[in-house]
Write a structure and sequence with these properties.
19 strands; 263 residues
């Protein structure tokens, strides 16, 4: 290995990724009553598949944690990633890594929220990481900031030292790790100028679809559209009847319509 690559996580090749996909999606209801949140499509691609594709841009070793919608998730992901099944309860972001400690096995880990949609290139996020501090991807958002004016954008790099002590019990990474590191000035915050949407809410889910499609409506495979659809999402197999005008909305099936308002 040459000197330029000696300190690079990508050059070491030991980075693994964990896609967090076990959540109930309560904020996304009623959409998450139809599909597990991680299977809800953005531009006709399931959120978990978007996250898997992004993870595999930097590592071939990927795990996904699952709990809610377990059967559907297992069927969807069969043979495509290491599955970490959380039973009898979901373990949260920290507990998920605690359960996966044996699989992570001393390696640094990229943690991705399956519902965090963004365009920031993860290769750039990983490049130059010192492998010692926790690095978080953030965006400027004073109204919803997690770290002053910066909002967490669903991607984190964690050294093994920050994972080794995590336990497989319900707990969150912010509470057990990042809050104290932030107070001590020991977080490495990377700020992206790319759009970010938390698809855990209907408004941002709709906005993510429109961002992914370039602003045009997203019509799923097998959907029947006889009416007018404007800046909206029609799920696969959905129906928009003649004379209907769907604006800034999400249609599932024939009669489930959500008009959340865009963020």
């Amino acid at each position: 290995m040459d000197e330029a690559g000696a300190g690079s996580t990508t050059a070491r090749g030991d980075l693994v990724a964990v896609v967090l996909a076990a959540g109930a999606g309560r904020r996304l209801r009623p959409l998450s009553d139809v599909l597990p949140k991680a299977l809800c499509p953005v531009d006709n691609v399931a959120l978990v598949d978007v996250a898997l594709g992004r993870a595999r841009s930097v590592t071939g070793d990927v795990a996904v944690n699952i709990h809610h919608g377990r059967t559907q998730m297992e069927q969807h992901l069969s043979g495509r990633a290491h599955l970490s099944v959380e039973e009898p309860e979901a373990l949260g972001t920290a507990g998920a890594l605690g359960l996966l400690r044996g699989w992570i096995d001393g390696r640094p880990v990229l943690v991705l929220n399956s519902d965090g949609w963004h365009r920031h290139p993860l290769a750039a996020f990983v490049q130059g990481w010192d492998g010692e501090r926790v690095r978080l991807l953030t965006v400027d958002d004073p109204e919803q900031g997690d770290f002053g004016p910066l909002r967490y954008a669903g991607a984190a790099l964690m050294p093994w030292s920050a994972v080794a002590g995590l336990e497989p019990r319900p707990s969150g990474l912010y509470e057990v790790s990042w809050k104290a590191l932030s107070a001590a000035g020991r977080l490495d915050l990377t700020t992206s100028t790319q759009p970010f949407f938390d698809c855990g809410t209907p408004g941002e889910y709709l906005a993510a679809n429109l961002a992914a499609s370039g602003g045009s409506s997203v019509i799923g495979p097998g959907a029947t559209v006889r009416g007018e659809v404007v800046r909206s999402v029609v799920w696969p197999g959905g129906t928009v009847g003649a004379g209907e005008r769907l604006v800034d909305s999400i249609r599932v099936g024939a009669d489930l319509t959500l008009t959340p308002g865009r963020p």
